[in-house]
Amino acid sequence: MVTHELAENRSHCPPQPCRFSQGHGAGLSSPAEPGIRASMKKGMILAALAGLVMAVSLVIYRGAAEVFGTLASAGWGLLFLTFFHIFPLTCSAKGWQVLITDHRTRLSQVILVRWMREGINNLLPVAQVGGDFVGARLLTFHGVPGGVAGGSSIVSLTMEVLAQFLFTLFGLGLLFLVLGERESEMLFWMLLAILTVLPVLFGFFIAQRVGFFRIVETFFNRLTKNLQLEWLAVGELSGLHEAIQAIYRSPRALSASAFFHFLSWIVGTGEVWLALYFMGHPISIWDALILESLGKAVRSAAFLIPGGLGVQEGGFMLLAPLLGISPEMGLALSLAKRVREVALGGGALFAWHAVEGKRLWAHRAKNGKNPGDEKSG
User: Fold this and answer.
1) How does pLDDT run across 250-268, given as a tens digit for each residue?
2) Residues 137-157 pLDDT 10s
3) Could you give the C-alpha distances from 22 to 75, 236, 237, 366, in angstroms and in order?
């Protein structure tokens, strides 16, 4: 029955719609791959649940009434905080756009793609990086080849991590000026932890340069070839390695990308300053920068936990007292950020499904199948 349905579905496919590579390795995924994907999905869901339990436990431990009361005191300021995110979002989108040198894209298009990408990373169990794959796919809808879209997304992520590393060092330097030698041992261990990012970042850079993404290209095309994943694929990924190398041959594009991503991290500091201001605890912009840089670093270190659930809350709860802010206020700050993520991310997920649904409908209609008349059996 299933074999007959697969054969019937294939018969509807036109002879050349293939958006994927048909070279060596193309074809249906191996029997083990669905099991691997299912295990990864379960692992991400369990990690998200564990993080959620941790976040709830921290709020209860510090006093739910006080934490939520502080958060509620921000009132309509939370709405203003949500709209403020358009500024760092635009800077991040520009940091991606400058890497797409051979294909014309409008900044508004990249902003929308970046918005959906962030929504997926923040709200879905995808280890905070799944949105990057979907973002690359969405970019192909605007005429960018799959290899270029994927390559620019990978290099943009590299520049973003590099910019965050510098931003975190900046924040740690400011914290040293605030604390002096009072917490020298703690600051030393924090610096050591931050420096551990360098080997990982360097390794990721080397992998891009020596051709690791040729293997990724072949594997990804093979993995997404089966009928159940076809509509989720980035598209024709041939040329991914070449696209990455072409970007790295443009120092001007790389430096511009790093600059805009660093600017995005700096501008994002305003989110912390505004949140605490609306909650009745105004701080200096330098203290806000310390909280934002180190809080983001803690969350990024836990990238395997979807949305950094629980880890972000614990990070702000521990960092806040270093600047004379109560742990409860630190937790409320983290929750204010969550409100913004849910508000913007929910809209982003809706927009993503609308775009994908419309495209899938058009694809099936083009193949002579009326989506509205489909039967499950």
Assistant:
1) 999 999 999 999 999 999 9
2) 899 888 888 888 888 999 999
3) 55, 9, 11, 22
Residues 28, 30, 35, 38: is their CA dihedral positive or negative? negative
Does the pLDDT value for residue 198 go beyond 90?
Answer: no
Lowest mean pLDDT among 28-32, 164-168, 255-259, 269-273: 28-32
Residue 208, both tokens? 């891009």
Higher confidence at residue 71 or residue 228? 71
* Spatial CB neighbours of 29, under 8 Å, sequence gap ≥ 6: 222, 223, 225, 226, 229
Spatial CB neighbours of 247, under 8 Å, sequence gap ≥ 6 = 99, 101, 151, 152, 155, 253, 254
Contacts of 64 (CB under 8 A, 6+ apart): none
How far CA 180 is from CA of 129, 167, 183, 187, 192, in Å, comes to 36, 20, 7, 10, 17
Query: What does the alpha-carbon distance between residue 309 and residue 332 come to, in Å, rounded to a whole number?
Result: 14
Distances (CA, A) of 282 to 274, 288, 366: 8, 9, 57
Residues 22, 231: Cα–Cα separation, whole Å: 16
Q: Which helix (H) or strand (E) holds 321?
A: none
Torsion on CA atoms 35, 352, 129, 252, rounded to nearest 10: 140
How far is 249 from 266, CA to CA, in rounded Å? 27
| pTM exceeds 0.85 for this model | no
CA distance 282 to 298: 23
> Do residues 93 and 116 lie in contact, with contact meaning Cβ atoms separated by under 8 Å?
no
pLDDT digits (tens, 9 = 90+) for 37-56: 667 667 778 877 888 888 88
Q: 126: buried, middle or exposed (CB in 10 Å: 19+, 13-18, 0-12)? A: buried
Structure tokens at 345: 């991310």
Query: Which pair of structure tokens corresponds to residue 264?
Result: 């995005």
**pLDDT in the model for residue 37:** 61
Any idea of the CA torsion for 337, 343, 344, 348, to the nearest 10 degrees?
A: 140
Give the C-alpha distances (Å, rounded to integers) separating 297 from 58, 124, 168, 169, 364: 19, 20, 7, 10, 44
